[in-house]
Design brief:
globular; eight-stranded parallel beta barrel; 11 helices; alpha/beta; 19 strands; about 400 residues; nine-stranded mixed sheet
Length: about 400
Amino acid sequence: MPRTTALPGEDAARLAGYEDALHAAGLDSRPVAVLDAAALEANVADLGTRAAGVPLRLASKSVRVRGVLDRVLATEFFEGLLAFTLPEALWLASHGNGNLVIGYPTADAAGLRELAASDPARAAITLMVDSTEQLDFIDTAAPGHPELRVALELDASYRPTRSLQIGAARSPVHRPDQLAALATAVVRRPGFKVVGLMAYEGQVAGVGNAGSGPRAAAVRAMQAASSKELAQRRAEAVAAVRLVAELEFVNGGGTGSIESTAAEPAITEVAAGSGVFGPGLFDHYTHFSPHHALHFGLDVVRRPSPETATVLGGGWVASGPPAADRLPTIAWPRGLKYRPTEAAGEVQTPLVGDAARRLHPGDVVWFRHAKAGELCERVNELAVIRDGSVEDVLPTYRGEGKAFL
């Protein structure tokens, strides 16, 4: 089961004071999500330092709050957004955001027709493709469409042998010559303009590598080998595509791989998103340690036994392979853990441990989601706290009535 966060004294005091700040602002309903402004700003600055001058593109799926997107984009480190759906990109563009790259191919016919009909949207939004079949779909959905900006995705997974693939199953295009062939096909096709290239090395950016055991050592060795292999292959792919198209950007990486990705000469920008919040899955890296900026609080509602305190709800399990690390991390009070036979439940979450004996109905237990933006699909707003007071309340996508996945 996920451990209770080992909070330093400053973090513990901060969490213990959240309830007073929320009460003073009239925010007494639970569940509640709290964003610490100072921790957010420290994380953004740290991401910028790690990028060493290479621009960062903010992954919106890891935030899902327009007010936070705007705060981060206002800093010197970030330029543009990596959106996750076409409807989201269209919505963000309608609110004044530009430089939007969609990180995944789309099959949204209505959205494509809307994009084709809007000069400002077409100037702001870049579609992602990795096959000519996707071009066929776009042409069928929006026949006779004006020129659309597209980026090509190179598969960045690590393949040390013919039968072993380590990393996400994304683009079918793995070799530089395959990407060059795709670029040529797009360039020759009316209505499309190649402007960028993307390759996401999830096996480096999204896999924790901390620890002293054999598994952690193997992960670090794999990541080092993968980064070396990808740097050469990505450079060759970029060079091959540049023979047929001018590239405005070459995007790679993620929060966990900023240093290695930014060091590649072929890269012009690095994607990052989860690092601004510092969710539970990012507690397990050797080379960076984000501040815990985002928490959610649940009410204790019953005491099934003297050693058990039960909060209402709590089963906010992260996407990905089912495992204990996908459960929320129990942050405060210290000394709580999940009841092994129930874990985090849909309607209730019994918690045990020494601290459970001191909890009573109406007390609040604070958690951190395993992932960053997924918490914002569960709540309508984030209470932004600075120096012990609520300075703002920001609606999430859900709070604005938007659901893009």
